[in-house]
Design goal:
Layout (H helix, E strand, L loop, with lengths): L1 H19 L1 H7 L4 E6 L2 E6 L2 H10 L1 H11 L5 E6 H5 L32 H10 L21 H12 L11 E4 L6 H14 L5 E5 H13 L3 H9 L3 E5 L7 H16 L3 E6 L11 H8 L2 E4 L5 H18 L7 H10 L4 H18 L5 H7 L14 H12 L3 H5 L5 H17 L4 H7 L5 H17 L1 H15 L1
Parallel strand pairs: 2-3, 4-7, 4-8, 5-6, 6-7
Antiparallel strand pairs: 1-2
Helix pairs in contact: 1-2, 1-4, 7-8, 9-10, 13-14, 13-15, 17-19, 19-21, 20-21, 21-22
Amino acid sequence: MMNTYQERWSRVKGRLKAEVGDDIFSSWFARMDLEAVENETVRLSVPTRFLKSWVQSHYSDRVLSCWQAEEGSVQRIELTVRSAVLRSNAPKPKPDLQDAPRDQRALRLDGGGELRGIAAPVSAAHDALGGSPLDPRLTFETYVVGRSNTLAHAAAKQVAVARRGDVVMFNPLYIHAGVGLGKTHLLHAVTWAGNASGERKVLYLTAEKFMYGFVSALKTQNAIAFKEALRGIDVLVIDDLQFLTGKNIQAEFCHTLNALIDAGRQVVIAADRPPTDLESLDDRVRSRLAGGLVVEMGPLGEELRLEILNSRIAAARIHHPGFDVPEPVVAFIAKSVTHNGRDLEGALNRLLAHSKLSGQPVTLEMAEREVRDLIRPQEPRRVKIEEIQRVVSRQYNVSRGDLLSSRRTANVVRPRQIAMYLAKTLTLRSLPEIGRRFGGRDHTTVLHAVRKIEGLVGSDTALADEIELLKRQLQE
């Protein structure tokens, strides 16, 4: 019966995602789990009290209506906090590797696992500081490095191995990427490795935990102690900064950020977009964030997806020795499931579940059936010239106004030519139309730019790689 309800829960989540959109769904519902269906009540759980409060205040009626569309007898939604139980009955909740799906709890690929070696004392020390839960599997040793995340991984590793008193090389370290590309894995790895030495206090907080801690401190009149505790940290790690809201909370975050950086302490931050695109944040905060090392993690290439899959399969076999995925199936998933690491993990979880529950071997036909909803349409999305200008401006640190201006300096001319080339190759706009959208230029100017970049791409591999990266960003 529970399997039936889990299937309905999957359809309910599909309805929710369709209604609220991918971003809101990822923010508030991706970590929501079905616990039980009893009489006319559906019991759901989330990992934090903040998340529970927010969903109850803003989305409870919508969740109920989506359930009623699948199961008409449901009259009530009951929301609980998993962490409230787990704190007294370890182990802690564990998100999957490489930012894998957090809503797939049955038949985990690594079988769950226990805290081993230094993990338990490090976790206890972290918890004592009031940090968000850490997953003992999200370490540098389990992180799969590829072309799209090499710089972010190297920078994070540099932060993790630094000692107290060392000169801080870049502060803050700001990592941004889309959902499921490995940001949380890196931040957990920094926290584990940094605390393992015992020299420094490293604290990992989600933005929602930071907000909850600040609000709770104000309510209990412990705000000064809260601020002092944060500013006594050697390395502060903040995840999902895009969710930091509220003027007072943002002001306190800004003060904390400035105090830590001015004192030579390290700050590491992850978000789903660069600092300049965090419109909800105060200009001072965005400026301070942009003043450090800002690293973007690109989409997972097919080769990296293949490595991640093989790594996860190897981990699964430790706990499920009979689990075998033929090479053609691995190649099919790596080629077809392109969105992010969570979808890859979800695909393997389905294959594992099917194999364990049915007793049947994994075949290509079965894989095609099980993961079909994870395969995105192959038709490329329509790209707008404004998007091209925005992405190129961000990549080359020039303003959109510079691209449209008459400036002829080298740092503006080349990005402008690249943007015109992309406009010609990724849109159906004519050369005269492209010229008009770039400050009223003549079509011959656009043609010259297109031919110039076409010629350079053939001989300059670095430029060719940059343009391919821009194309992927625009077509994602």
